[in-house]
Amino acid sequence: IKKIGVLTSGGDAPGMNACIRAVVRTGIYLGKEVVGIKQGYQGMVDRKFVNMDSHSVCNIIQLGGTILKTARCDEFRTYEGRQKAYKNLKKEGIDALVAIGGDGTFTGAELLSREFDIPVICVPGTIDNDLYGSDFTLGYDTANNTVIEAIDKIRDTAASHDRLFFIEVMGRDSGCIALWAGTAGGAEAILLPEKDTGIEDLIQKLEKGADSNKSSSIVIIAEGDKNGGAYHVAKLVKEKFQFYDIKVTILGHLQRGGSPTSFDRVLASRLGYAAVKALEAGETRKMVGIRGNRVKLTDLVESINNNSFKLEEDLMEMSTILTI
Ligand code: ATP
Q1: What is the ipTM of this complex?
Q2: In 3D, which of 125, 220, 115 has the Cα closest to residue 175?
Q3: Helices marked H in the chain — which ranges?
Q4: What pLDDT, on the 0 to 100 scale, is given for residue 309?
Q5: For 182-198, b where at least 16 C-beta lie within 10 A, e where not — what string?
Q6: Which of 12, 128, 225, 264 is catalytic?
Q7: Looking at ligand 1, which atom is closest to the CA of residue 71?
Q8: 128 belongs to the catalytic site
Q9: What is Dmax (Cα atoms) for the chain?
Q10: Does the annotation flag 11 for ligand binding?
Q11: Is 187 annotated as a binding residue?
Q12: Helix 79-92 / helix 103-116 crossing angle, nearest 10 deg
């Protein structure tokens, strides 16, 4: 391997820059050239390549987002699109790839690598923490801390006004952020896509809280909860339960931004370093992840096929006991 291409793809996540930095500096240390591919697979198709030296990744470890930018690229979903991308890589002399992103990014990387025989290692980068083969993904810890900060602030106003707040957090298919941040923020109830919590059950919980003189409450709702989102849940609860003044806050994209936590910076550095070392060792079509605080490789196909990521059962069980 002489020249490694690095790209970020799918949704941005805090820690991606720290990972790019680690890939560039490890590559250079091992005597390789490193090229940044802008806007994920779109940049591969459109030849948006930029040479990276050690200096080009100065002062980025603390930055959220991604200096290489990210994009969704439909052309890459077709064989012709990937062929065009591969030809561009070849012209540029790029003979190996590190792709940072979610399971869509992994699927594209796996196909490209298999069809055109180019080594690829993927790094799990998504705030959702929903990838098989890694206990944590880049950006998850930072997103949780952002949500907790918001919960704490909302709790101040909830308590002052005797209000019930429904806070919607990211997670269309995965309740990871809702469960983790809801637990850390001491939420009175947590609604997850993975668990059917009916409105009646929720109202019962809130009534119990009101009966024990709780003057305010916070309910965390993952955006993929089966009851239909925070506004809808608030409306249903309002119809049957008038004890509190009810408010809704949707945290939205602010959960994606911000300076990565120390955990995400170190995780990103470890996985970026490990990705380049794996390429150097002749590995391909693998994801580098962290399991039990050890860097582990997982087959990309295995990771993609196990996308029904399971929430930690002990956390789920505990959260039903520690909430009201
Ligand atoms: P996030 O979890 O943040 O959404 P992701 O990597 O899953 O991240 P996607 O938009 O699903 O985000 O995928 C990123 C890109 O990967 C797509 O825009 C597309 O270019 C490529 N990709 C996704 N699925 C496929 C596929 N089945 N075949 C080829 N390429 C794909």
Answers
A1: 0.98
A2: 220
A3: 16-29, 40-45, 79-92, 103-116, 140-161, 176-184, 199-211, 230-240, 262-280, 300-305, 313-322
A4: 64
A5: bbebebbbbbbbbbebe
A6: 128
A7: 18
A8: yes
A9: 70
A10: yes
A11: yes
A12: 70
